[in-house]
């Protein structure tokens, strides 16, 4: 009798093992987290695409795929259904705010200023991280922020490649930080990189100008990263530095701006990971109240400087142009200032400035 029990138990365990072993597993399903062309080409050779829409690309690895590819992939927790939606268009979100209305301050944002900064940054021969021109552009942005009264420091991952941190200390809750960031480097095409990402840095400079005399409760921080196009080097370095100093917990919100200058749809994507969807929903409400933008929430962050902060549990939302209708000159020499829509960039500036002001007064 006991032998029969052991036989039945053995068959049960064998069936369970075979059931678990059969077919593809969830941990073989990945989200692609790199958008760089050389990575993409290699991935196409070793993966099977399950889903691709906008900024969401889900793949399954083929047999004998190089292990090195894993650095460009993120396992989908719960399998492919975990990211079952992307790009939900939010058109009727109602935002409830305090009685304070910030339109007076927000209306100080200048389209011409943003445009002039984009042209200025695009006039450097190349902003490839570590190049002489990249250093000149970085130093130029530092001087502009210092002239506005901000305390600026450099964080260098290489003697010739530095990010910038500019702060305006809060008057009440100075330990709590709201951070806005964007990368200054480009892929290296000559006199290009207007949308990617002179647009984001130019909006940061204009936000800093408007906020220079604002009496902020919390500390407002601007982070100009470097080396994004080489693999999120500057943002990863800074996120790691803050983590080691146990300062990440002080950040209540990070807003990343990457490619906010090209528009055909009036849509801005609010990209984050599923655990921070409520923050994207909140920003969709801010957009509905303070801008003309339509908002699309994309869950599953990849390919930009918001990722290192999300990976460390910091509430972070990226604002980026509608990726299904993105700039056709993405990462190309034709990414020039005259092709951008500065009204759209100004609307993104309005969204992010309003979000900072509202978060500062929560």
Total count of strands: 13
Q: What is the fourth-level CATH superfamily of the largest domain? A: Zn peptidases
Question: Poorly predicted ranges (pLDDT <50, ≥5 residues)?
Answer: 1-26, 79-86
CATH topology of the largest domain: Aminopeptidase
CATH class of the largest domain: Alpha Beta
Largest sheet: 9 strands, mixed
Structural class: alpha/beta
Radius of gyration: 22 Å
If helices are DSSP runs of H or I spanning 4 or more residues, what is the number of helices? 10
Q: Judging by the overall fold, what is the CATH architecture of the largest domain?
A: 3-Layer(aba) Sandwich
How would you describe this protein?
- It contains 10 helices and 13 strands.
- With 362 residues, the protein is α/β, with parallel strands linked by helices.
- It has 2 domains: 14-80, no CATH class; 88-360, Aminopeptidase, CATH 3.40.630.
- A 9-stranded mixed sheet has the order 5-12-11-13-10-8-9-7-6, with helices on both faces. Strands 2-3-1-4 form a 4-stranded antiparallel sheet.
- A hairpin with a 2-residue loop joins strand 6 and strand 7.
- The radius of gyration is 22 Å and the shape is globular.
- The model is unreliable at 1-26 and 79-86 (pLDDT under 50).
What distinguishing features does this structure have?
10 helices, 2 domains, nine-stranded mixed beta sheet, disordered N terminus, 362 residues, four-stranded antiparallel beta sheet, alpha/beta, 13 strands
